[in-house]
Amino acid sequence: MQSITSQELLKMSQIFKILSNENRLKTLHFLFEKERSVGELTELTQMTQSAVSHQLKLLKDHQIVSSSKQGQQVIYSLKDHHIFELLSQAREHVAEDI
């Protein structure tokens, strides 16, 4: 296996820090299913719009989610297949213990 750089370790630890928050994981769970608007995520997560927007900003700043404008709405989705795979693997791991 190839050695890992300090920069890679730092970026990896930042991803895991961002993913370690229950509210962000809840938000990502619903984005895992399909693209959604802030309004949809607010309803599904039962968090305030402000809280959902804050979580989405953090996720977007760390390139975990992306957004696109559809008319008046901003639609959020998982950034790429790597995030999808990380969440899938974590969920499978947790399911083994249940």
Give the N-terminus to C-terminus distance in angstroms. Answer: 32 Å
Main sheet, how many strands, which sense, barrel?
3 strands, antiparallel
What level of helicity do the residues show?
Answer: 55-70%
Instruction: Determine the number of helices (DSSP H or I, runs of at least 4 residues).
Output: 5
Low-confidence stretches: none
What sequence of helices (H) and strands (E) makes up the elements? HHEHHEEH
Q: What is the mean pLDDT?
A: 94
* Radius of gyration using CA atoms only: 15 Å
Structural class: alpha+beta
Task: Give the beta-strand count.
Answer: 3
Strand order of the largest sheet: 1-3-2
What share of residues are in beta strands?
5-15%
In one word, what is the shape? globular
Structure report:
- The protein has 98 residues and is α+β, with helices and mostly antiparallel strands.
- Helix 3 crosses helix 4.
- The longest helix has 16 residues.
- The radius of gyration is 15 Å and the shape is globular.
- The termini are far apart.
- The mean pLDDT is 94.
Features:
single chain, 98 residues, alpha+beta, 3 strands
Short description, anyone?
The chain has 98 residues and is α+β, with helices and mostly antiparallel strands. The protein is built from five helices and three strands; from the N terminus they run ααβααββα. Residues 4-98 form the HTH arsR-type domain.
